[in-house]
Design a protein that fits this description.
With about 290 residues, the protein is an all-beta fold. The relative contact order is 0.10. Mean pLDDT is about 90; it is low at about 205. The chain is built from no helices and 31 strands.
Amino acid sequence: TGGHGDERGGGMYIEDSAPIVKNCILEGNSAENGGGAFLDNFTGEFVDNIVRDNEANSATNAFTGTLSYNTIGGGIYLFRSDGTVRGNEGSGNRGRTAPGIYINLGTPRIDGNRIASNSGDGSSGAGIHLDDTDAVIVNNLVLENPIGVYSATNNQDAVIAHNTISESTSTGVSLRQYSTYGGGKFYNNLVVDSGNLDVSASTYQTTVLGYYVVWESNDVFGGYNGHYSKYDPTGVDGNLSVGPKLSNDGLFVLSEDSPVVDMAQSLPNIDVSLDYYGNARPLTGADMGAVESH
């Protein structure tokens, strides 16, 4: 706790190795990038840790002597990493860009984490931020962040599936495509109750969904200013816009009569056999979101 790194990894910095980091608390640390942890070419497991109240903050570059304001990864910064980040709690972290988890390059698996109440710039302050990565993002509860999931560019083979993205203070999912490269493959997610829009597509593209982004069997509902900023795929490719009837006890379990029960499409090439709580998820007839009702 209370650590500071000028450029990378306030609480923890791991490079070119594959340790198992388990049951640690990273709290109150700061660095320009990766306030809690900076994981560089990390191929190990980062499991069941608490990463809270860390900050990616401005720092003077040791080489140029200039002050940097492009602070990234308040909680965790994953750089060219193929490891697993599973079962962690990331909350109360701060940073201009990606106060939760920032992923750049590599193919990490981000599975079953609770990423909540992190704060940052409303335009890019995401719980999970993807940039030029083929990451697998599954079974996460992404709650009360400025943006739930932000997909920048070159994420065409990234998979974002069976996540519950709820109560984002601005936007649930933000898609920013500046080229013909894709923004990821989104399946079986719940994107609900956002403070502004549930899904915002780049102003530079008018047909992001279904062309630059695979968007299938997602339920998008409850955004204060609407569901989608551009093309609305409701009713196409299994997409819904209905209230999912989530429990109000903080567990985000679906009620038995939820309209998204049994509505997920099968994903035979992606391991989503367990839900957020470790309960079995059927290969066919699964529920949308991170938590199975069965």
